[in-house]
Every structure is written in C-alpha cells, then in structure tokens.
Amino acid sequence: MVHFKSIAELTKFVGYHSPEHAYLSLVKVKEARALLTSFPSKVTFGFYTIGLKKNLKGYLKYGRKHYDFQEGVLVFTAPGQLISYENLIIDESEGWYLFFDKSLLQKTSLQERFDRYHFFNYGVDEALHLSGNEEDHMSKIFKSLYLEYKKPIDSLSKSLLVCHLEMLLTYSERYYRRQFTTRNIGDSSLLTNFEKVLDDLCSVSSLENRGIPSVKDVSDKMNFSPNYLSDSIKSITGMGVQKHIHFRLIDLAKERLLSNSSSISEVAYGLGFESHTYFSRLFKQIEGKSPKEFLSIN
After folding, report:
1. Pairing state between β 57-62 and 42-45
2. Residues near 88 by Cβ (< 8 Å), separated by ≥ 6?
C-alpha cells in the first residue's frame, strides 16, 4: 500500500508535472492514461478526491465493497480511505481527476459549509450516477475549473477556484438528491426494510442487551454507509436515521410509562439509556414536556 500525503507527492510519483497550486490539482483522465499504468493497486490519500470517470474498466474498492464502474459516474473520497484497484484498464477512459486539500478552503465561506457534503464519506457502490444531461453539465463545470486552474496565479485565483469547487459540490448534492428518489432508493422497499431493521434493533431484548442502536448499527444491517443511508431516508421522510431512532425510543418510552408502574429511571435504563437525565432531556426535546409532565396529564 502507498500513502500519498500531499498532492505534490502524488504528481511526482506518477511523473506528472508539478501542480499549479499547492492545494489543488485537476487532471484530464485521457492525459494521465500512460502515467497510471504503474499506479499502486492499494493507496490512501491525505487529501480529498473527486473523479468523473467514463469507460474505466476494472474494479474499485473502498470501504467493504467492490464496484465495477464502466458507465459515467462521479466518485468522491475523503482523506485516509483505503482505495484498491483491480484489473484496471484505462485505455479508453475519459473524464477528470480533481485533488484538493482542505487547506484550500481556509478563510472562505465554503470552509464553514463543507461538512454538509456527506458524499465524501459514502461507499464506493454509492457513487453518483449521472444522467446524460447531468454529465454534460458537470463536465462543463470541470472544464471551467480547469481553465481557471491553468491561468497564472494572482490575488483572486484562490477565490475563483473555490467558487468553481463549491459549484461542483452543490450540483453534486442536487444530483444525489435526485438519485435518492430515482435509483431504487425512493421506492417503498428501502423504507420498509429500514422500518424492519429499526424494529429489530429497538426490540426489548436488543435494547436490554446492546443498548441504544447507532446510525452505524442500522446502516451495517442494511449494507449502506451511515451517511448515504441517513441522506436517503431523509430524502423520503424528512428525517435522518438518528432522528428516527430517537422518535422510536420516545414512542416506546411513552408506551412503557403509561402501561406499567415502572419509574422514569427504570424506563430510561430499560430502553438502553445510560442516564435518566439524558433520557428526560431527549423526551422533552421531542414531546415538548418532561416525562413527569407527560405522566401528570395522561
């Protein structure tokens, strides 16, 4: 496995010219074909990557899954992700490779909003599949960014590069939302399966033995990455997975408070809460009243 700490380190390894900017590099896939023939089969990066790829044959893996992507897709990775390539054939591949370090965003408005783009932590099989029109549009954004990237650096270069990058990320967010509802995500089967998994993890025995389920517990059972599942469920219901867990627990709490003589603390611990104080705070946050106030009016 090879780790590339910086963008300059990566470009030097493949024999490409030094990046025009310290914190961003943009490469046309067809120009890099010859350079990638000896690329390591397993790598990690110390920076973010975005790849718009077409006709790239072979298998890519990060996270737990392999993905065969011969159609046009947009793939995002975050620093530290282990990426594996198998049987990679790039002779006819096209598209773009964009590498950027988060230092590029310092003292920009994008720095404050960057964490909202969850897709950098999606799984490989959760890549963004673009329609023909979407692919054309994203290609134009890449080309516009490339033109700015190739210009001599001046006092406005950073601002303009970040503006182009933010546009790319914003449209990616828009197209992912479309994907959630059109690529076998928005149908009833996902929601039905989600409800079944939530029922299982919030059963009496599960809560007593394993405690309150996390978003990762739910996503692992459904074979999604936590961020992708949460964003998918939110696109359908308006709430992410964490909120669904909280609402389910409070619904169970109301049933138990009204159906037996257990104290508030006993109900809280029986549902897997480590603190009755946290339970009471969450209960009031969702119901608008404390467990004690809830009991007094029911």
Report:
1. unpaired
2. 36, 39, 56, 57, 58, 59
Give the pair of three-digit tokens for residue 149: 């990237």
Domain 2-182 maps to which CATH number in 1.20.120.1560, 1.10.150.20, 3.90.550.10, 2.60.120.280? 2.60.120.280
Judge whether 264 and 280 are in contact, CB under 8 Å.
yes
**Could you give the CA distance from residue 180 to residue 98 in angstroms, rounded to a whole number?**
24
Q: Which pair of structure tokens corresponds to residue 187?
A: 């149908």
CB 213 within 8 A of CB 242: no
Identify which of 91, 93, 113, 94 has the alpha carbon closest to the alpha carbon of residue 102: 113
Which of 18-32, 126-140, 165-179 has the highest mean predicted lDDT (pLDDT)? 165-179
Distance of CA 251 to the CA centre of its chain: 29
- The CATH code belonging to domain 188-296 is 1.10.10.60
Residue type, 208: E
Burial (0-12, 13-18, 19+ Cβ within 10 Å), 130: buried
pLDDT in tens, 6-51: 999 988 887 777 778 889 999 888 877 666 666 777 889 999 999 8
3-state class (DSSP) for residue 187: coil
- Helix pair 226-237, 241-259: axis angle to 10 deg: 70
pTM of the predicted structure, to 2 decimals:
0.80
The alpha carbon torsion through 74, 79, 82, 84 (nearest 10 deg) reads 40
Structure tokens at 151: 């210009």
Q: Closest Cα to residue 270, out of 285, 257, 282?
A: 257
